[in-house]
Structure formats: C-alpha cells, structure tokens
Amino acid sequence: MSAFQLNGVPLLSRSVIDRAEEIRRDEQALRAGWGTAKLLRINRRGQVRFDNGALVLDVAVELSVEPSRDAVFLGIEEGVHVWAVRDPDLQGKLTDLRMLASSSIDDRTAGLLSAAFALLNWHDKAAFNSVDGTVTTVSKAGWSRVTENGHEEFPRIDPAVICLIHDGGDRALLARQHSWPKSLFSLLAGFVEAGESLERCVEREMREEVGLDVREISYLGSQPWPFPRSLMLGFAAVADPAQPLVFSDGEIAEAGWFTRAEVRAALAVGDWSARDERTRLLLPGSISIARTIVESWAAAG
C-alpha cells in the first residue's frame, strides 16, 4: 500500500478552548474577566505544574490586581478567562511538555500548552523591533507587539516539514541524529526556506539529509511544535531503497530501512523514554506528529 492517511489528530493539534480573538483588544472585557481568570505558569526551562495528572492553573489575581503586561491571553474556557505567564521561580511538581505521555494530555491541556509555549517563547525574543532595534511593547493581550511609532509585529511561526519515506510497500526509512540515544530513530525533518514551496522543501531536505530522491509526495497533516515556535507539516513520500544513503549535511548519524513488522514491534514497546540500549528500535514519544505518522503507516499495511 503506497498511500495512507493519518489515523488520528496529532496530540498537540487538539484544542477545545475558545481563543476569543474578538476581545484581545477589548481592555474593558479583559479587566472584567481578570477577577475570575485562571493563570498557567511556565518557567524558563519550559516546565509546568501537574497535580494528580492534571495541569495546574492558579488564580490570576494572585499575580496582579488587573491584567498583567507580562501575561498572555489564551482564551475562554466555560466562561472563565485563561492566561499564561513566564515564572522563573515556579515551584512544585514540574514537568516538561516533551516528557508527558499521551495519557497526561487531554485536548484541553494540549490546546493551552501549545498556545502558551508558542506565545511566551516569541515574547522572550521580541522585545526589540527587528528593523530598527527600537523597543516594542505588548498589545492585544499578548498577541502582538508595537513600536513607539505604531508598527505592529505578530507572533512568528517557523514552518518545517517532517516526512516519512517509504518504498511504496513494506519498508520505511527512519533516521537518528548524533545527539540521540543509539536506538532512537524518527522521521526526517527540516525548516522551509524563503521562496520555497512545501513540496520542494521535502525534496530538498530528504536529499540533503540522506541523499534520497523522493516522489509521490503527499500531505498528511500538521501540528504546532512550540520548541520554540515551529509548525510541523507532515508528509509521506516514496523512495528507492536501492539508492545509496548519503549524509551530506552532517545532521544524521545513521539511517536504515525498517519493515512494517519491525516498526509495529517498536510501537508495542512504547517510546524513546524506555531508553533500553538492547532494543534495536525506539520511536518518538506520543506528543510528536512523528509518532502519529509512524503509527498510521504501520496500521495501513
């Protein structure tokens, strides 16, 4: 089977919160909602608090009497405003988003964390205008920044492609970066360059990373990846296993063709957190679209 589709929505693409874009510039509405608002705190390492498997939200007025310029408005949940703020001194049971299992992230948590991480990561690097270096200030409840002369800048999103290469039959190509555990393999990915279409990016990145010429490129789905502010665009493509692998850009340590049976066995083991060096193949965690793509391909045969 050559073509396949995702068998589910990638974890971080799920969201149920109302982003309420219409009130981001309504200072009166934001102040009115602040009194009962909830606040998500995230430290500099990208960690948040969980308690008994649930994301912890604080009372917003404990931070300030009125909406804080340091906080970003995430939306409205059951009539209650939800904000997020960077908190370097965050205490408690802290968890990194990338370490969370799928059982810990419901659609509500996924939506809140994806938006909060992307916005706060952007603000961390956007204090000065990229054109003239002048200071920018927060506007629209954290969804833009403006300069003194009124120039407005919006959160930056970095598009990247991620692709499962397969042979049109029973084998898929998986690769490992130098910094990863020896058994951890995943899909190939890379950022979209200026003036480049998504399909041409897939062709270029696959050739640069492993030397393969791909064809039958098909779009699968997307997922926010707020590390720091990417949007992962998932694809599948076909290549010839007989073509030699060439690691020309230095990012890939090794790559190999795995059968569908091998991939299914690895999926049954769990994910990379197992860290068992005796295991031939470990796969990415459930919060990554890579996992969803691999699972979908494995189930399609």
What keyword list fits this structure?
alpha+beta; four-stranded mixed β-sheet; 20% helix; single chain; globular; 5 helices; 301 residues; six-stranded mixed β-sheet
**Rg of Cα set:** 21 Å
State the shape: globular
Helix content: 10-25%
Q: What is the string of helix and strand elements?
A: HEEEEEEEHEEEEEEHEEEHH
- Biggest β-sheet: count, sense, barrel? 6 strands, mixed
Which residues sit in consecutive blocks of at least 5 with pLDDT less than 50? none
Distance between the amino and carboxyl termini: 6 Å
What is the helix tally? 5
Number of strands: 16
What share of residues are in beta strands?
25-35%
Q: Mean pLDDT, nearest integer?
A: 93
Structural class: alpha+beta
Description:
It contains 5 helices and 16 strands. By secondary structure, the protein is an alpha+beta fold. The model has no long low-confidence stretch (mean pLDDT 93). The termini are close together. Helix 4 (260-269) packs across helix 5 (289-300).
Quick description:
By secondary structure, this protein is an alpha+beta fold. The protein is built from 5 helices and 16 strands.
Q: Topology of this structure?
A:
Blueprint (H helix, E strand, L loop, with lengths): L26 H8 L3 E5 L4 E5 L2 E2 L2 E2 L11 E7 L2 E7 L7 E3 L10 H18 L12 E3 L4 E3 L5 E2 L4 E9 L4 E7 L10 E4 L6 H13 L4 E11 L4 E9 L13 E8 H10 L19 H12 L1
Parallel strand pairs: 1-6, 11-15
Antiparallel strand pairs: 1-4, 2-3, 2-7, 5-6, 8-9, 9-10, 11-12, 11-13, 12-16, 14-15
Helix pairs in contact: 4-5
